[in-house]
């Protein structure tokens, strides 16, 4: 058992209001530089929708992530020979139109325009060419289902829905959407690391953060293709690739990431997970319908004495173990089984999890109040405005049973809280629904507390740390590990011939 620590995150989608404050906080801090204008390390998408870059989920177009061939796990992009033949021309890269062409405005014209009858305007100017341009796309172009007939209908997750189901989804009076914030998943089996020819992308052993060495990067851009979530970007000014760094300078001093800190809806949680690195290959090659269950199984119980002993042998000290034991991510993902990975079928084992939105259900009404506690309570889930099939394509690799289980539990917790605090629903019936959903009263109260009334210390549970201190605690000599990357500060590096 090779026990490692991973900084992991969870987003509660029912609480996201789509304000994009997180995106702006990240933008102002990390990507407000020349060459990075089009980059959004954090973005918020509307679902159904095509996302950013457009159609990023369609791996028949971009060939990102991994695919299972027999018993082998190979990059979807292809083997090393194919990479070599495409090293100077990669046909599967998103182009500027898939993102958007960054622009500014000719503000000077507002002051220098000659006197005339009409009000002068500031025309958009391309930040790439410096010429006037027409704006045809942006980072949130289909925000709030804007132009849904053009954009939302192209959502690849609608492919398995029948034409009648799609038509019902987009009826004006039934139209519904939710927001999907996205950052780099800092995966356990990152596709970007697997396809980088120069070895510039690495995963830090002490916390699992995936980074790109700007010294080693040669601008081949295979990382852009290899990441199925399209969360690596090419800086056209520096000729280097860049990506989300999980705000590790803030994390190391005990501060929340910029996007987490600024979140208006308080939807974001961060904590430590312990996992068995020896099982990554086994989990990533599981059958598609079992990927979510398999990924849960790789996460270890931080209170298990055997796990604690193995973790300490790998150099994890007590403050990391204590943080893992108090981790909200462990509770959401492993203990309560409410949080799910985004597109587990990409087989990258993402470490960002989502608590899916409680879907708008078609319910009966009585005196103007929704009647959600009748005998057909859980039947309302199957009759939700957003089909279960669509949600399972997003969060459970197509396994509808897992999605239904999560939604039933969320419904039951909400009903219990309504019965307890509002009184419109019989409490005994609410408790029975909890039991049917596989949830105890104690769990329901804890879920409600962590969802609705968490303190900052409940949402962000990780120790302040410094990389040099972590290495020093283990080996006593930081110089021996200078420049070391990847899995591996747990054993001294070899030097010389």
Q: Describe it for me?
A:
With 497 residues, this protein is an alpha+beta fold. It has a domain at 1-96 and 140-355: Alpha-Beta Plaits (2-Layer Sandwich), CATH 3.30.70.20. The protein is 32% helix and 14% strand. The chain is built from 21 helices and 17 strands. It has helices at residues 21-30, 59-62, 80-85, 109-112, 163-169, 191-195, 222-226, 248-251, 258-262, 280-284, 291-298, 305-313, 318-325, 328-335, 379-382, 388-395, 400-421, 427-436, 441-452, 456-459, 467-475; strands at 3-12, 43-47, 66-69, 72-75, 103-105, 124-126, 178-182, 201-203, 210-212, 232-235, 240-243, 268-276, 340-341, 352-355, 364-366, 369-371, 460-461. The strands form seven sheets. The chain has a five-stranded mixed β-sheet with strand order 13-14-1-12-17. A hairpin with a 4-residue loop joins strand 10 and strand 11.
